[in-house]
Design a protein that fits this description.
By secondary structure, the chain is an alpha/beta fold. 43% of the residues lie in helices and 16% in strands.
Length: 270
């Protein structure tokens, strides 16, 4: 959940997202940090999510790098903290998604980067609804002209939209949603045109798409979701419309099989 909000922020700030284990820094991540040699590393989430053993390891391998932690009392507070740092001067557009599941926030991540917008998380439907205090405060501080709600009523209920409208009278609040996560992802990238490539990840798991959000956003290209068993109609429709010259398949063959990869290749521009 913490990385859902961090993906858009990283893209806005021009940096990548790397994933870590809770108690240790994986060898592959360690090697990538050494290769990148960043001036700053932002660790997202509290010590219960990313332990001090991880931050200590980063400081050992990058002794001149600033290591900062952004964390709140929960995932909603953490997302708000990320937004305040990445958008210190406010934002014209804010994306809102449930923090209880990943697909909707992932679907809007690249679009949020393109719009220079943060992604804030809300509890969504069936858990009291409404806006957490941290999210209300972030919205008031950001001062957007538009709030884009990702996902249908089963993800973010109308009570949450009503809370946003009361908090920000006169601000346009619109919902981007489809019947499935694949439909929602397709609608979230409806305004993308003339892209040279697209990123495709499996929609039943989140890590692969999560890591690509910042990269896709910086490149101004969308992230689309597929089912392990095939290419959903909504995704196929976007691929036909965009006719990209390159499709970047995220994850190994256990996530997206060679057969599915071959089907995706059929959507490439001739």
């Amino acid at each position: 959940a913490d990385a859902l909000a961090a993906g858009a922020a990283a893209g806005v700030l021009g940096g990548p997202v790397l994933l870590t284990a809770r108690w240790s820094l994986p060898t592959t991540v360690r090697a990538e940090l050494v290769r990148l040699r960043p001036a700053q590393v932002v660790v997202v989430g509290g010590t219960g999510v990313v332990s001090t053993a991880v931050t200590d390891a980063i400081e050992r391998i990058l002794p001149t790098t600033s290591v900062e932690r952004l964390a709140g009392v929960d995932r909603y507070d953490t997302a708000a903290a990320i937004a305040r740092v990445a958008h210190a001067d406010g934002a014209d557009v804010v994306y809102l998604a449930t923090g209880r599941s990943a697909p909707d926030a992932l679907a809007g991540g690249a679009a949020a980067v393109r719009d220079d917008a943060p992604v804030l998380l809300v509890p969504g439907t069936g858990v009291g609804g409404g806006l957490p205090v941290a999210v209300s405060a972030a919205l008031a501080t950001l001062g957007p002209r538009e709030v884009v709600v990702l996902g249908g009523r089963s993800a973010v209920d109308d009570a949450t939209l009503a809370s946003v409208e009361r908090l920000l009278p006169g601000v346009r609040v619109r919902r981007v949603a489809g019947a499935t996560r694949y439909d929602t992802a397709a609608r979230a990238v409806a305004s993308f045109t003339s892209v040279d490539r697209v990123y495709v990840a499996v929609g039943t798991q989140f890590p692969d798409a999560l890591a690509a959000t910042a990269a896709a956003g910086v490149g101004g290209v969308p992230v689309l979701l597929v089912d392990p068993s095939g290419v959903p109609d909504a995704t196929a429709g976007v691929l036909r419309r965009l006719a990209p010259g390159r499709i970047v398949v995220l994850g190994g063959v256990a996530a997206i099989s060679r057969g599915l990869e071959s089907r995706l290749a059929g959507f490439l521009a001739e």
